């Protein structure tokens, strides 16, 4: 729902009538908030496109400050779903994705009613960090609750996964591992204990919507990149090293795995046919700045997702210095620190 593709969809400004509906969703149903997460060991490629079963297990950090709050209200008088994101009614792809998740909820709850969904994103700066992880985790909890279902964390993670793979991890605060599994019941995330106080410093290179969705980019990597199989083979080793580093409280080992892992993922995109290149000149500048910081002795390792923005893994204690040093080197970029954030919750 915060996915950048939304920007291309026809927009319908709120009229008095739709505004009433949106308020009804907030008042009569259930409301949940979820935080976005950033993967340190990535999910890239699906084994099952319908069920969203990934080819690899992944590890992520849920972040404070990047939130989606969604209200869902089922209405017996209608079978139509309506979706409002940041006070604008959405149709097309965004609505279809939301309706597909609502269908799963309706099926489990044995209801037919249409829903009004009102979703708000509280990001402290312009788009570009839009993530479907917070959106679908919030939707899964709000919709299931509004329909009378009381799902446990595993069930909720599986439901959120059907909206967007990464959303399965936003059910949990802090670090979460998403076990790839092989079918619907076996593919879910769970929390990972972490003795490290981690932080992510986000360097915003561009807030513009991406031209190629992560869905399309990962499909193309799976189907056409010669490097894709090597990327999948490297996953168990990366995940095992990352989890061992977390357990040992070793940020250096964790950072090195995270950096290598994201570079491997982008290598599969760059070698897809036709290639997917999310990097911009500013991304390379930021990656070089992160290298310099590390050479100067600061704990800082980069990761990137399906876009040009660079996220820097560090510790909460070092985040301020990392942020200051990056600002000196990248004066044109918006730079913000995000500490570990909470899991999805009802309001
Ligand atoms: O959940 P999706 O479809 O938005 O895919 C997210 C993929 C990456 O962000 C690039 C990696 C990840 O594990 O979150």
Automatic annotation (TrEMBL):
Domain Diphosphomevalonate decarboxylase-like N-terminal: 34-189
One GO cellular component term: cytosol
InterPro entries per UniProt: GHMP_kinase_C_sf, Mev_decarb, Mev_diP_decarb, MVD-like_N, Mvd1_C, Ribosomal_Su5_D2-typ_SF, Ribsml_uS5_D2-typ_fold_subgr
UniProt record, GO biological process: isopentenyl diphosphate biosynthetic process, mevalonate pathway
EC annotation from Swiss-Prot or TrEMBL: 4.1.1.33
KW Lipid biosynthesis (keyword) present: yes
Pfam families, alphabetized: MDD_C, MVD-like_N
Molecular-function annotations in GO: ATP binding; diphosphomevalonate decarboxylase activity
Superkingdom field: Bacteria
Family: Belongs to the diphosphomevalonate decarboxylase family.
Protein name: diphosphomevalonate decarboxylase
